[in-house]
Every structure is written in structure tokens, then in C-alpha cells.
Give the backbone structure.
Amino acid sequence: MAPGLTFTPMDRPPATPDDVARALSDHGYIPDEGLATAIFLAVTLRRPLLLEGEAGVGKTEVAKVLSRWTGGRLIRLQCYEGIDASQAVYDWDYSRQLLHLRAAEASGESRGLGTEALEQQLYDERFLLKRALLEAVSHHDAVPPVLLIDEVDRADDEFEAFLLEVLSEFQVTVPELGRFSVDPQHRPLVVLTSNRTRDVHDALKRRCLYHWVEHPTFEREVGIVRLRVPQVLEPLARQVAAATERLRDLHLYKPPGVAETIDWAQALSALGVSQLDERTVAATLGTVLKYREDQERTRQYGIADLVKQALERGTAS
Amino acid sequence: MTTDAPAERIAVAFARVLRGAGLQVPLGNVLTFVEALGTLDLERRDAVYWAGRTTLVRRPEDHPLYDRAFAVFWERLGATDDADDEQEPLKITLTTDDDEGGDSGEAEASDNPQITLRFSAVETLRNKDFAEYSDDELHQAQAFMHRLRVAGPPRRSFRRRAHRRGRHPDLRRTVRAALRSGGEPIDRRWQEPGERMRRLVLLLDVSGSMEPYARAMLRFVQAAVSGRQRVEAFAIGTRLTRITRELGSRDPDKALALAGQRVHDWSGGTRLGECLREFNDQWGVRGMARGAIVVVLSDGWDRGDPAVLGEQMQRLHRIAHDVVWVNPLKVTPGYAPLARGMAAALPHIDHFVEGHSLEAMERLAATIAGDV
């Protein structure tokens, strides 16, 4: 990879989706045309990007590669059921506040001060614990950070409503301190991901650019394996991609994602394998299929057949 | 695709085509689309295609519609061939509002002699089999079902809430209290784990054999969905259709009509096992059914392989909190779960209940609430 090809969107913004595709593959991610266009628009229009798709198709990875590309720091917010403001936006460091109160009491300082003055001391920025969202809208970085809001479908509706507010204005108010905001040029790049366990609210979707991430095509997956596991040679990469592609058609509970393909290739390379065979596939199936039933189904289908098809498809080009 | 019209006009016209095809396209998104077109090479079909899909479409289900509309609008392909493929949506026949029936405003007005009459009518309806209902009775039953509170038992939530004698110290409120006593934390505050509602998932069999009951049960499902949050509803028949959004409307008639348009396999065949598999794959195991109360409303007649149904019920049972099967045939004298599907599913069910009458539905609501 020639260093001249890499650029950050800050000093040289991408002019076309192709620029984005090139830059991302320089940083270890091969997007298809739809995703490249979506990312291009997110960067150019400075809009949040909502990525939905099966688990393991590389949604979270998009935020990571954006961070590597732009040089902006990655701020990650993992959502879960019951997440609230104190975990997503900010919290006060109560233990330190209490200590501070005790110290003021002990030194006799608090007697001279009124309650109000004491309270002012307590609700100072140094006792503020910034969580991901506040961090993202109050940053002073030269390069805007990348804010990853991961698995937003796991959070509750109320949290989504709050998120909507933050993503429209890019500001957060802390009652005791006032408003934190970031000027439009320094807004973070925002990537939201969802596994679609439930529908994300329409209002939030409207704020975002939307892209449904598919499993990669065969050729793209070969490219991804080659890029991520460079020690694996082309023929094995093709066989692994072919075998995974076949597995995805077997109606498994959890069809393998790109992450599993990469894991598999890594495992095979660690074992010093240069070509798929029945024995190695049987021994390493656990890196690709994480359900007993799925492994069973694959064995019923026939590992010998799987290997045979993978070898055929892997050598044909 | 060369054209002299400015991007705004093209975008607005395209949005109208999409709306005509049944997509919801808010104006804000059209503006974003215009903005996006401004940054792209308009001569490239793919660039325009992806810009539109990224800005105007928000659900993968809408992709085929979008593709068709895109083809029609941007490539001016023959629209007629595509239109033929489109299935004519089946409609549920709904009872039309006759003058004195079903008007909730009227029913709620007090001192109206009609109410007692109406109520006693519901009383006699309570034990009547849904299959023998007239359209009018169905309408009255609907009002009754809306009064049922369909909600699962609460579960412990991640969040804690303030409590007088809790187990965990509440530092936030202790600090607040300490301020009032000059910085001395004399008054300690406590908190307890909070509670949240469990998700409720309703799977309604709409196949031909269920036809006499599905009409009434759909009303039960609608009452549950519109009543509170965290309820999901699906129709199962030859395929799985999510009807949560459609049933969410406050107006039951509108909701039922919308659901009727959405479900294409109304009174068709049954592929329970396949549909359950689709539910598990697409929604359930991914998170929707995890820790939830899952209610299957079906007579258990399955034209598919009973082994598939058994396997899928087992999967569902493993992740759900409670699996309830409502079978309207259970009340039939001498009923034994002989339908092969039903027999395969039985080992993976927590509660097997009746569902043929209003009274049965009332008991179902109690079962869901964990009172049984």
C-alpha cells in the first residue's frame, strides 16, 4: 500500500464513493459499492449512518476502520436493555464528591461557605464523569472522533428518543454546568449499528442514512480474507470463502459471518494447512459454527461434500 | 439517464413514485436525497441507486419495492410486466359499523339503558364458541377484549430505583442530602433493583383450519398490541408476517384492516414449523423472544414435517421465559392432541390452554400475567 494513496477526509475529503472504497481497503476493510456510497454520503453530508444486518457481517468494523482512516479517536457506546443517562451521557463522581465534602468539613472550610457555594464546588467539571455521548459532543480533538453507537436495537425506546435529540443538535445539557456542544465542522462521524432484534424508531431512522449490510460476495470475501490474514495464500483463501458461502446456504441457526471466515482462515493458517481436507475441516468446524445443531447439520450434509465443493469452487476462477 | 431537470425536481418526482408504490417517504429524507445527489455523479446509475436507497429506504423489506420503482422511474422499463407479478392483497372481511353497535363513545356514556343490555349481551357471549359468532357479536367481543389487561409479570431490570430500605447505597441521593446537612452524610439513601415489563410475543395462526377462530383471536392480539409497549405480533400461515406496526393503531377497525392487507396468506395453508423457524431465525433467537413470554395461537394442524415444528419449539422454549400454546380445539370433548404438529410441540410448552371463547381469553390473559 503506497502511503500516497491514504488520506484523511479532513485535509482531503473523498470526491467519489470509489475514493472511499480505496481508502477503506488501504485500512483493512473492503466495502461493496452500496456501503462505500453510504459512507461517502455520511462523511460528505456529515449525517449519522445507521447500519443494519445479520450478526457478523462487519457493521461494527465500519466504525473502527473509519477511525483508522480519519485518525479520529473511536468513542464506543455499547447499548443494552436498561441503559440510562448515567451510563451513556454523564455521571457525577459521587464518591469523590463525598470525599470533597468531608475534606471541606474537616478543614472548617465549609463553615465559612453557604450551602450554595459548597454545591457549586461539588458540581464542577472535575467531578463530572463524561460517558460516550457527552465525550463526543464536548471533544477538543483536532480530528473529529468517530462515535460508534453499537447495537442500538438493544436499548429502550426512551433512550432512542434521547439519542434522537443528541444526534439532531449535537449538544448535551448538564443542568449544573450548562450546555456542551460542538461546532458543525467538528461534529463526530456517527455510526449506529443494529441487529434488528426490533425495529429502531422511524424518527431516529429518518435522521440517519440507512444501509443494510449483506454477507459479502465470494470474490469480496476472498479479498477480505487475503487482507486480514495475509499469511493465508490465495488458493486456501478461496477454498475457505467457498466453504463458508456453502455453509450459509445450509439453513443454519447462525450462518457464519465474515468474522467467522476470518477466524477460520486464521485457525487453518495456525495449523499450517495449505489446502482444505475433510479431517481439518471436521477439527476446526468449531471456529465457524458455534451451535451444536449447526455442526450436526453440517456433518449430516457431509463434510466430504463440503470440502469437494469448496475445492472445485476455490480453483475455478 | 440524461436529463435537464434540476436534481430537486427529479428527487421530488421519484419520491412521489415511491410513495405511490407504498413506501413512506418523509420530506426530510427527500431533501437529504437531493443533497446526496449534489455530491454524486448523476450519470452513474449505481451512484444514484445507492444514494436513493441510503436516504429514502429504511427497512430491508422495502428494497424490492424500491428496486422496482427505481427501475420504472430511472430506467423507464416497462412497468406493466412488473405490475402483473404483484399479488393482489387479500382483505379480511370486517364487520361494518352499524348504527348502534360498537361505538365506544356511546358505550361509555353513563345512565344509558343500552349499556346494561349490551353488557349482559357480552355476558351471554362469554362462553359462546368463537366459531359460532356473528359479525355483530364479534364486534361486541372486541370491546370486551380491549378491557382485558394483557401483560406479563415484571422481571428485574438493570436499573435501580430509590428505596427506603434497599440493599445498595444510593450515592447520588446521599450527596444531595449531605449538602443540606453541611456536608455530613448523616442521612444515607438506598436503592433497589427496579422492575421492567417482559416482552410479549404473539404468534397467530391464520391458516384455513383456524379461520373461525382467527377473526376473534386477531382482535385479542390487536387489543394486546395497542394496549401497551413491548408487545410484538406475527401472523403465521404459509409464511411469517410481522403485524406489530399494523395493529399498533388505536382504532381497532383501522388496525385490523391494515393487518388484513399486510397478511397475504390469510386462510391459506399451514407451515407452522417453517414459519416458526423463520421467526426464530429472523427475530426470536436474535433477541426478541429472549426472556419473553411467547404465545402461539394455533390449532396445531401443520402440513409440514412435525419434526421441524418440534425442533423449532424446542429452540424457542430454550430462550423464552414462558411458552403458552392457545388451542381453540382443546375444549372439544374427547380432544387429544392428535394433530401431529401439536403432539410434536407439546413437550416444549409451559402452558397449554383453551382459546375458543371470551372466558378462555380472559383466562389466557391471567396465564400471561403469571396468575395461574
